[in-house]
């Protein structure tokens, strides 16, 4: 679908033509060259290759970024984001925000993942047991998204994959959160091309459909990780994402309901669940008192960026908070993205100051 999206900013009106999509229905060409480009608030961190979906972490006093590696796979755009035909991951690092960015080369290649068929989408990483773990979604040989894990003794890899996806895992966009008690939780899921609508009560239904507008929206998922960091310690659970009255969102509330790109950070003892609304292009956040939720919707973290997808991570680095995100500034094409970073502010009442990615 072609989306003509008008963003009303406090002092100006910016009209963006957003063409195409990732894990979602589309009918048009890949190009978004007709974007009327507003001035971005930040510049791409990497320009020699295309990168997206940045999951950032601080390991050994260095900032590491685990993004998708976008390529033009020559695959025509389709309703399931088939044109996002990524084949490997690169890890990037820098000694501080604003520092030189190092590309550590290929960290994991799909040809070395025995179970994977295609489409290595948004990854994340964690450290435990003197080991770095790379978590990644990919379609298996039956074209069903699962989540894999690969390990390394170094944060930049290379990573050695397990022979099978994590038992009980499904869909896309893993994000692993370490709580203060040392527990690790994986948040995951994505609707439309991310296939979450095919999973009901953790059972696969090949003909699972997206929800109708009046139906309850599909919920993101969580599972606690075992100490081995390679398996789930419990059955996958749904996460309740609710409005201020405690009501779950309907599919019609698509500027608030979960679509993909889950991330959790903790601030002043509260759990902040942030996520993309997909077809309305926001990064939103919701706050809860437990890693399992429920999470109450609070507002927008990041307004829509150029390109269809919006995907982020939120990390504290040297006492400041940062939002890592992407847009398509370098290519103008929705499947060839570039990662960025900007500072994020928590207000005194715990709310997040919404970020407009263009001036
Ligand atoms: O990069 C491929 C997919 O696009 C990700 O998994 C989604 O979150 C969206 O950014």
| Low-confidence residue ranges | 1-34
Whole-number radius of gyration? Answer: 19 Å
In N-to-C order, the SSE pattern is EEEEEEEEEEEEEEEEEEEEEEEEE
Shape: globular
How many domain units?
A: 1
Beta-strand fraction estimate: 35-45%
Q: What is the CATH homologous superfamily assignment?
A: Glycosyl hydrolase domain, family 43
Number of helices: 0
What is the CATH class? Mainly Beta
Helix content: under 10%
Integer average pLDDT: 91
What ligands are attached or bound here?
Answer: beta-L-arabinofuranose
What would you say this structure looks like, in words?
The chain is mainly β and 359 residues long. The protein has a single domain (3-344), classed as 5 Propeller (Tachylectin-2, Chain A). The chain has no helices and 25 strands. Strands 7, 8, 9, 10 and 11 form a five-stranded antiparallel β-sheet that branches. A five-stranded mixed β-sheet has the order 18-22-21-20-19, with no helix packed on it. A four-stranded antiparallel β-sheet has the order 3-4-5-6, with no helix packed on it. Strand 3 (50-59) and strand 4 (62-70) form a beta hairpin. The protein is globular and about 45 Å long. The model is unreliable at 1-34 (pLDDT under 50). Beta-L-arabinofuranose binds at residues 22-23, 52-53, 68, 84, 121-122, 172-173, 190, 260-261, 309, 311. Beta-L-arabinofuranose binds next to strand 3 and strand 19.
């Amino acid at each position: 679908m072609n989306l003509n999206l008008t963003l009303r900013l406090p002092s100006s009106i910016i009209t963006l033509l957003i063409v195409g999509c990732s894990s979602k229905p589309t009918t048009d060409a890949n190009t978004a060259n007709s974007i009327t480009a507003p001035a971005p608030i930040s510049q791409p961190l990497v320009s020699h290759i295309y990168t997206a979906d940045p999951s950032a972490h601080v390991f050994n006093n260095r900032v590491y970024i685990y993004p998708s590696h976008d390529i033009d796979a020559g695959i025509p755009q389709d309703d399931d984001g088939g044109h996002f035909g990524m084949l490997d991951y690169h890890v990037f690092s820098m000694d501080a925000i604003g520092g030189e960015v190092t590309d550590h080369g290929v960290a994991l290649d799909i040809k070395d993942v025995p179970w994977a068929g295609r489409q290595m989408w948004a990854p994340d990483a964690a450290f435990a047991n003197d080991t770095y773990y790379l978590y990644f979604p990919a379609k298996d040989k039956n074209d069903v998204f699962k989540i894999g894990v690969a390990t390394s003794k170094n944060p930049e890899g290379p990573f050695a994959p397990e022979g099978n996806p994590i038992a009980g895992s499904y869909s896309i966009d893993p994000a692993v959160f370490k709580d203060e008690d040392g527990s690790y939780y994986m948040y995951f899921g994505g609707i439309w091309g991310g296939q979450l609508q095919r999973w009901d009560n953790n059972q696969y239904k090949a003909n699972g459909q997206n929800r109708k507008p009046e139906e309850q929206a599909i919920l993101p998922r969580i599972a606690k990780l075992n100490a081995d960091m390679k398996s789930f310690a419990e059955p996958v659970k749904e996460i309740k994402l609710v409005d201020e009255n405690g009501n779950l969102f309907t599919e019609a509330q698509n500027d608030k309901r979960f679509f993909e790109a889950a991330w959790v950070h903790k601030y002043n003892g509260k759990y902040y669940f942030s996520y993309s609304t997909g077809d309305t292009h926001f990064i939103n956040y919701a706050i809860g008192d437990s890693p399992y939720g429920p999470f109450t919707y609070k507002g927008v973290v990041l307004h829509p960026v150029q390109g269809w997808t919006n995907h982020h991570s939120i990390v504290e680095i040297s006492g400041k908070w940062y939002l890592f995100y992407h847009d398509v500034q370098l290519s103008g094409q929705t499947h060839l993205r570039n990662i960025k970073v900007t500072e994020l502010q928590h207000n005194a009442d715990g709310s997040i100051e919404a970020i407009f990615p263009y001036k």
